[in-house]
Design a protein that fits this description.
Helices cover about 55% and strands about 20% of the residues. It contains 11 helices and 12 strands. It has a 4-stranded antiparallel sheet. Strands 1-2 form a two-stranded antiparallel ribbon. A two-stranded antiparallel sheet has the order 3-12. A hairpin with a 2-residue loop joins strand 7 and strand 8. Helix 3 runs antiparallel to helix 8 and helix 6 crosses helix 8. The longest helix is centred in the N-terminal third of the chain and has 35 residues. The chain is elongated, with a radius of gyration of 27 Å. The mean pLDDT is about 85.
Length: about 400
């Protein structure tokens, strides 16, 4: 029971740490962009619902923590319905109310009366802040930990009953040759074995300072191609690579190079996301890898748990947990930044679409059209969240568990 409670605590705390960082930076993007254009701000909140902490600063901004820690928002003055853009008639009503309360001309401090280009920048600043956060995180990781350039072909474990076990491979073996060909890294070993199922391979390994000859015949397993989703038969030995620090060679970067790596990693994650969505749309992927809050929480806990279990030293374990969760935060930040740029009215991208129309037509979109688009967008977002949650529950085998209860 205690193990379950401790694991649950790790999952919850890890999830909240990652999500809070990403959401806070997103909302600070909106906040400081608003400050840049001197927009009056009523509230900055992390979390929804009743406040568990609240403080109002000298500028009249309420800083709040809500008891539901699954989001956040910035409330600009006069922003009664932040999900839509007021039309011309509504803007005049708001202008009159502001003039009656604080005097004519004071509406210039309100978000909806700023030039459309300034409003667009304020809205886009949230997703942009997420991309900047990802770049900073990946740059920091490149500076601190470098980049893995080579994993030595040292064996961490041998799968019982596998071809490697039958051949006599042992934990700690360093594979140096395969059929006389030099093996420099783990990828070389994988590539050589991949297309040689059923063929005997003569290996040379270093064991205890001596060289030992072993002969193994790779078995065959079905793997899924990352290119077109099809399956293919590949050779396997049943060996796992050692991830001990002494078996991993890393490239080290200076500050400028690290920032470059931050950009590279961020756009690589974005490219992977776009590729996956394109494959879903074209029917080449099922979409079963989409995850919601439950999946993110489970992943956060698993990442933290694996990092903590990788060493017995408490200080080193804490450092690995921190770096692992930071990596996850970078990945999640790219995802949230991209998601918010989708042209769905509930999201920042939807607001940008409305502002683009306003810039061209010289007037806001009609309130009825905005309301209809908002409802459609909300329905799409709810469907996406339900689908992602279904995936999460399926991956956790919840449906298998529930199906087995009657028996």
């Amino acid at each position: 029971m205690m193990d379950f409670l401790s694991q649950t605590l790790v999952v919850v705390l890890s999830f909240l740490a990652v999500l809070t960082l990403v959401i806070t930076i997103h909302e600070l993007g909106h906040f400081y962009a608003g400050r840049l254009f001197k927009v009056k701000i009523d509230r900055f909140s992390i979390g929804f619902g009743k406040a568990v902490f609240s403080r109002t600063d000298r500028r009249g901004v309420e800083w709040r923590l809500g008891w539901i820690p699954l989001g956040g928002y910035v409330k600009f003055a006069g922003d009664v319905n932040p999900a839509s853009v007021p039309d011309s008639a509504h803007l005049e009503e708001i202008r009159s109310e502001i003039a009656a309360e604080t005097g004519a001309g004071s509406e210039k401090d309100y978000f909806h009366f700023k030039p459309v280009w300034q409003r667009a920048i304020i809205v886009a600043a949230g997703p942009v802040a997420n991309f900047v956060l990802a770049i900073v995180i990946f740059a920091f990781l490149a500076l601190i930990a470098g980049e893995v350039v080579r994993v030595l072909p040292r064996v961490a474990s041998v799968e019982p009953g596998s071809p490697a076990a039958e051949a006599g491979f042992l934990e700690g073996d360093l594979v140096v040759q395969a059929d006389g060909r030099r093996i420099n890294e783990w990828a070389d070993l994988q590539q050589y074995v991949l297309m040689r199922s059923g063929e005997a391979i003569r290996f040379t390994v270093e064991r205890g300072g001596e060289r030992v000859s072993l002969t193994a015949t790779p078995g065959v397993r079905e793997l899924q191609s990352g290119i077109d989703g099809s399956t293919f038969r590949a050779g396997y030995l049943g060996l796992a690579a050692s991830n001990a620090p002494e078996n991993i060679e890393r490239a080290r970067y200076g500050p400028v190079e690290a920032v470059g790596q931050g950009f590279v990693q961020t756009f690589a994650v974005l490219d992977t996301t776009l590729t996956y969505l394109r494959r879903i749309i074209t029917g080449r992927e099922s979409g079963d890898q989409l995850s919601g809050p439950l999946g993110i929480a489970t992943t956060s806990g698993a990442v933290a748990g694996a990092a903590a279990a990788s060493t017995q030293d408490p200080g080193e374990a804490a450092g690995r947990v921190f770096l692992s969760l930071l990596t996850l935060a970078g990945l999640l930040s790219v995802g949230i930044g991209f998601l918010n740029l989708l042209p769905v009215p509930v999201l920042d991208g939807g607001h940008l679409v409305f502002y683009a129309y306003e810039a061209v037509a010289r007037r806001p979109l009609a309130a009825q059209v905005q309301e209809g688009a908002y409802r459609v967008g909300l329905a799409l977002l709810v469907c996406l969240m339900l689908f992602a949650t279904w995936n999460d529950l399926r991956k956790l085998s919840v449906f298998d568990f529930l199906g087995g209860l009657p028996s």
